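Researcher: Re-running this chain for the archive, since the previous output was lost when a drive failed. Same request as before.
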Amino acid sequence: MRHRAFWTLCLGGLLGLGLALALARGSAAAPPNFQTETLILGLNEPTGLTFTPDGRLLVLERYGTIRLVLPGETQPAATPFLQLSNVNTDQGERGLVGLALAPDFSQTGNYYVFYTANTPLRDRVARFTASGNTTVPGSEVIIWQDSAEAGLWHHGGNLAFGPDGKLYVAVGDNFDTNYGAGHVSQRLDSYRGKILRLNADGSAPADNPFYDGAGPQLDAIWAMGLRNPFRFSFDPPTGTLWIGDVGGNNTDSVEELDRGTAGANYGWPICEGPCATPGMTSPAYSYNHNSRDASITGGFVYRGTQFPAEYQGSYFYGDYAQNWIRRLTFDAGGGVANSLAFEPANGALDGPSGDIVDLKPGPDGALYYVDIGPLDAAQAGTVRRIRYLSANQPPVIGTAAGAPLSGPGPTLTVTFTAAASDPESDALTYQWSFGDAASAAGPDAVHLYAQPGRYTARLAVSDGTSTVYSDPLVISVGSPPQAAITAPVDGSLFRAGDVITYTGAATDTDGSLSAANFSWSIVFHHDDHLHPAAGPVTNVITSTFSIPINGHDFSGQTAFEIILTVTDADGLPARASVLIVPEIVTVTLASDPPGLGLNFDQATGVTAPFTRTTLINFQHTLDAPASQVLAGVTYNFQAWSDGGARTHVLTVPPAGAAIIAYYQAAPATATATPSATPSATATLPPASATPPAPLAVYLPLVLR
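Model: Regenerated structure tokens:
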């Protein structure tokens, strides 16, 4: 993902921040004769898309809205297809993330969504019934709900009906930090870290692999051992289920594409990537983080006819953090043959492809994908399309401009000009949409905006076969407000568990403002990508945010950005933001003897000694395997130097910590019992027979 500058900004006249950033990202260069275009703009954290059988497009927004776009349109309908009222987006990745149409949707209007409910705070799957272009009020029927309170991260959330007519549901591990068989992904009494298989009414099919009726196992579980299976899809001709499972947070973590199999255990957190542990299923394809961030977005096998023949049967997938789309080809035996760049065509990282969270084939055979947009910019999400153009090349827009783009109001007259060309010299038609329900044909137009407000104008140019769209022009009529965050101070430090009070102020020259004009959101910056953290919090001038004490760690470059948007009565926004940064120290884990594998949160089998940067007062789970083999010698755990149990929680002290796991060599006659932790290869002297008394060594403070 692009390196985003941290900023404090008040928006006024020329261009809304969300659209400005969307334009700066541009359109990626797909392979020759492929065209990438941004179809739909101004979405508020879109998380997915689905096409109805008659070609209507449904777009999910994390805050609980499903937008409907009619065929041929580039703007969502004014009335939402669905608006959830009991959705929680308070912190982390909670919200609306999954949608599947019932196989008989055309007859019944039934469809299913995955979202985090606010009351009770649970991930759930609910069935709704559509009527025309909206949803029947009161039609919600909850068919599945998690038995545990929703965490902040790793919800999964994908839904799809399989060729067997059953509903498959992806559930993430909610960032559980237990180890081995105790991790939720490995337990059959937890839905988390699983693929579930349900009947349409939410009951569990009796032929599910772990079905035991009245027994202790959860009958809905179909496959297990997953971390965050955010996106999966079925390949209809073969019935194969392809699961994209997001890898860990470490620079050597692994992203997985798993072939779905009933009863499979994909290994998390015991192993990640190719796995030799008995009973575990290795991925069909995986790739390493290679010392940077990564996050796979599972896609689909292309079976359309719009792309050339060599793309038939390719699996298209993306990466949210590395900003690309690639494709896999398969050999005659169904194994992965090649990984090939697609967008951008040169395979470069951090390109203009956007933050990809869903990919789907369209009814026209093109590839559609959702760019959730930079989460620090409101309404910057988009839906983009990649299509193949063989004989007829699309027009090229050279100019699409308007002047002036802002004025004090109450009205504003804007002159629009355009110029375009066509590779085949076909006659072109021009159509301006002014953003206030008015439009005009022709390359040049003059339009009067009669009311104060913020409008988005766009030009469409067609050669009779292909239509292309200009970058949007944002017109502001009237004087926007001015906004500022008065607390906390930009650059303030925080520790885990701190309660941050934020407050703002705003003025407006042509009207009064109140708390109803204020909206807050908080995003978490982690290296080169973002996570939602809190919000939107509306109708308050002052509120609080609690810094988490566990879950997503603070390794790498991290910060919280607090964003204030003040919108006046004319719909004109002003934005301001501040960054608060973590008070960082280090934790070092060592083993005696050196070179043994230790577990630190979700990092399994890390060779000691190793060091992690972390946040003061943050809680980490430390685990030392009961026994493991090093250089042919079996070692048994004896004690931690801080006196904790073999598996225990460390609350990071202000000076950091260095902690040692002491092991003792087993008698030579003992039978070696390797653990799931990978064996180290170094030849080292055995540990002392008796560990020293418990101690904790504290390291100097890195940053105050």
